[in-house]
């Protein structure tokens, strides 16, 4: 079990430096970017929260027990953490993110809690916009007494120059009130580099939504450099486009099934058809394929990737070429892999 540094509830004072995440807290600790502790939302942050539910439970006065994490609760709905309050038996939904609150996560939170009939609903984020905190507060006012909504802010601090980073959690919204002064009217400005990635992927996502490739917005599973689109055949299958460091652009089939064994089964059976699969993808140039099977404990996934040379700092004409390359290949990957994976899952 991975342990988090212990939670401390205290005063919040937003210092709008470097995206509102870094600077000094009111108690004069150095505030760090939350991704300095958790790089990956699902594997690092969600997993740490699931392993340390007592941190959240103690904060809100509940005894929380894990039921499951990263669970598909309905088509296109994958819940971060499902827990229960052992004192009352009430189900608890926890939606967590490593970016400021947004409408997409708010919608997911409400959808998840409705589908599983949760009576305790918790949203964990590094910061809350005023409008989103107000919605949670209004939901507490409107709903029955046995339904509770919480907005919990997470931050990472260093108490001294030589100390290790430490996570801290604070209640921003809770039944009976909210901390208005600890919300913001605007999301702190992103770094210029992050803004480049946002502008690069926005038209790709829009086109894939319009053409029916996907029906929901993608996730950022490895930071801002990529977008992951879930497959309807299994919650562990994703199609991704990414623009990584070192001039690497990728389109990817990401395989992360419920168990390591099933992940290996899917990958191994697909790889037996590698030659047929690769010849099924139609492009005007040779493709650089990478079949990556991970057997170590840290990387619980395998992937099939196609690579090309590209960089987020390329000239605009080259960026447009990269976008077109991704938009051309992603639907073909889905068309080639989707029926094969469905057959493997049915027969395994």
Write structural notes for this entry:
With 348 residues, this protein is α+β, with helices and mostly antiparallel strands. It folds into two domains: 160 residues, 3-Layer(aba) Sandwich (Trna Endonuclease, Chain: A, domain 1); 156 residues, 2-Layer Sandwich (Yope Regulator, Chain: A), CATH 3.30.1460. Helix content is 33%, strand content 27%. It contains eight helices and 14 strands. Strands 1, 2, 3, 4, 5, 6, 7, 8 and 9 form a nine-stranded mixed sheet that branches. Strands 10-11-12-14-13 form a five-stranded antiparallel sheet, covered by helices on one side. β4 and β5 form a beta hairpin. 33% of the residues are buried. About 5% of the residues have low confidence.
